[in-house]
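Anyone up for a design puzzle?
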């Protein structure tokens, strides 16, 4: 980052209650002996994002106790049960109060998305991309980056569990896709069968 470049904030959406996991909050799932939310937040930090915001919802109090997130700004989403869109809106509202020029968004339930993918998408922004996303075999995935001029539109379109999907589809021609399949994977932990991803 040059002296004149505004910072890029990291935004981790970690509020889900794990309904299909029998009500086990995804943020507290274990990976290498630590909560998944901790690994995901570190990936944002190590990939070059600062500051890092983490949106909490289900079991927020337990996450604050058990996860090492002292380097992050924690954002509570009391409406987390309304879906990912509400968490994205809450996170963007918090980041808007900072001097960040862009925000890079990741999801807590994708354990194979690490610092390398974050760094690649960030590099695309540093090269001029205002909308950028990791891709896996040509398919858009996370992380996703939005420059500040897009935040209001993203927030307006973020409803239910769709998050930024609608906005990205409407602006597909402007999205720079960054292939990350060699350093990361898009698989998410949604069902008990997916817990093998944490092994």
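Challenge accepted. My sequence:
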């Amino acid at each position: 980052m040059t002296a004149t470049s505004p910072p890029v904030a990291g935004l981790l959406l970690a509020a889900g209650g794990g309904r299909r996991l029998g009500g086990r909050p995804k943020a507290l799932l274990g990976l290498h002996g630590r909560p998944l939310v901790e690994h995901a937040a570190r990936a944002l930090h190590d990939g070059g994002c600062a500051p890092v915001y983490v949106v909490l919802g289900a079991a927020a109090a337990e996450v604050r106790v058990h996860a090492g997130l002292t380097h992050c700004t924690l954002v509570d989403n009391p409406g987390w049960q309304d879906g990912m869109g509400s968490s994205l809106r809450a996170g963007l509202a918090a980041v808007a109060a900072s001097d960040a020029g862009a925000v890079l968004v990741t999801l807590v339930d994708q354990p194979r998305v690490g610092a390398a993918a974050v760094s690649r998408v960030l590099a695309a922004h540093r090269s001029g991309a205002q909308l950028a996303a990791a891709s896996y075999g040509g398919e858009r995935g996370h992380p996703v980056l939005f420059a500040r001029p897009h935040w209001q539109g993203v927030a307006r379109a973020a409803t239910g569990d769709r998050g930024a999907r609608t906005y990205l589809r409407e602006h597909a021609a402007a999205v720079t896709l960054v292939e990350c399949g060699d350093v990361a994977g898009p698989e998410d932990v949604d069902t008990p069968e997916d817990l093998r991803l944490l092994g």
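A detail worth pointing out: The chain is about 30% helix and 25% strand.
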